[in-house]
Write a structure and sequence with these properties.
Elements lengths: L7 H14 L4 E2 L2 H9 L3 E6 L4 H13 L6 E9 L3 H8 L5 H7 L2 H4 L4 H13 L3 E6 L8 H21 L4 E7 L8 H9 L7 E6 L2 H9 L8 E5 L2 E4 L4 H25 L15 H15 L14 E4 L4 H9 L2 H12 L4 E3 L4 E4 L4 H17 L12 H18 L8 H13 L4 H23 L8
Parallel strand pairs: 2-5, 2-6, 3-4, 3-5, 6-8, 9-11
Antiparallel strand pairs: 1-7, 7-8, 10-11
Amino acid sequence: RLGGAEPKDVRDYTSLYEKDLRKPWVVSSKPELLSAIEHADIVYGGDFHALAQAQRTHLRILRSLSDERPIVLALECFSAKSQRHLDAYMAGEIDLEELRRKSKWDEQWGFPWDNYKPLFELAKAKRFKVCGINTPSLGERTGAELHQRDENAAQSLKQIARRNPGALLYVIFGDLHLAKAHLPQSVREQFGPRSSLQDVIVHLNSERIYFELAAQNLELTTDVVKLGENSFCIQSSPPWVKWQSYLFFLDRSDASAEFTEDYFDDDDNDLEDENEFDATDHVAALVKLAASDLGLKIGAEIKIDDLSVYGENDERIWKDVQSKTAARDREVAVALLKSAKSFFLPRGGIAYLPRASVNHAASLAGFYLHAKISGRKRNLWKMPSDFRALIWTEAVAYFISKLVNHGRKAETLTDLRTQILMASRTGAAESNGEALRLVLDMSMSELIQLRQGRKRALQV
C-alpha cells in the first residue's frame, strides 16, 4: 500500500495469509505437484497480477495436464458479468481484441493484457471452459470487502462445479486470497460439511521461502516446496523481479493516467511530463546490474550514453526507425513494430520495449551490453547468412537476462508442441506453424545427440 498503513482489518486478513506461508516446508518437485493437481477437484492457483511469470507459471501447469479430464478455468481477471463475452470468444464468435473491449478489461482489471492472453489462447486451443468469478469493485479496500469477494467467488465456483461434474476447476486468483481461511474456506462452506471436495493450493513466489532457500543454497535448484498435505509454493521468480514488475506497472499506469488528464488540459505549453514512464531508465538500470555481475565498470569499460528505449505508445520510435536505419533494415524494423516485437538497433542505441516486463527489459539490456562489448553496429537481419550470429547474440541476451532473473525459464518441448497445436486450432499463419515445427524438430535432434551421442537428420 503506497498511501500509508493498511486498515487493521486488512492487516488481519493479510496475517492469516502470512501465517500459512510461515509453515514448515519440504522440497518438492513438479511431478509431485502435478500428481496432486490431477487428483484434485479444485486447484487454487496464486496470481501476482503485474508479474508475467505468474501467469506463465499457470500456463505451463495447464499445458502439462492430461487431456482426458475436462478442465474449467475460473479467473479473477474477469467478472461474472463478462461470461457471455468469454463464451462468445470460446465459440469463435469474437476475437481477443473484441473480448478485451467488451469485457472492459482495461477499466475493470487494468493489469497487462498481454500477460494473460496466452492463457485464453491455450484454453481455446485445448477446449477448456473459461469462467469469470470476480466481483466489480465493492468500494474501498477493507477486510470486509476482501472477505465479501471471497464469498462471491465461492458462490460462483459452487455453481460452476454443479454445471461441470467431474471437471477439474483450476482457479487463478490473487495469492493473498488463497490462505486456507480465505477463499478455500469460503468454498468449503458453500459445499457443506459432508462434501468430499479435494483441493490443492498453489502459492507463488513467497519472499520468506525464497530467502530460507537461499540460506541453504537451494534457491537456484528448488522450484517447488510443499507446505502441507495439499499446499505448495512455486518459486518461479526472485523477489526483486516480482517487485520490479510491479514498479513497471505503476510507472506505466501513472504515465497513462497523466496523459489522459493532460490531454484535455487547456495549458498544453509543457508537453514533457517529468513523471512520464521512462523505459530508458528501467533498461539502463538493468544494464548496470548485469555489467556489475560481469565485472564490467560503467563509465570506464561501458558507457550508457546512447541508449534510447521506446515503449509501445511512444510514436518517436517510428521517426527514429525511418531516419536511422538502412532501407533493407527499415522493412524488418517496421514489421517488428507492427507485430509488437521488441528489438535493438545497435547503430544509434535504439530499443523497442512493447511489453514492460522484467524479462523483456533484461533481454534488451543484454542486447545492448553485448553490442557495447563486441563493438557490433550492424543489425543481424540478413538471412540466412546472419542466422548463426543471431543465435549467439540471442543466447548472450538470454544469459544476461538470467543474471537479472535466474528463475526465467526457456521454452520446453511441451511448450513448442502446445504452440503448434494452438497455431493449427486458432488459424495462425501457416508460416508460424512451419517455423514452430522446425524449432521443435531441431530441438529433438539436439536432445537425441546430447543423450544418445548420435546425429539425427531433420525430419521437417
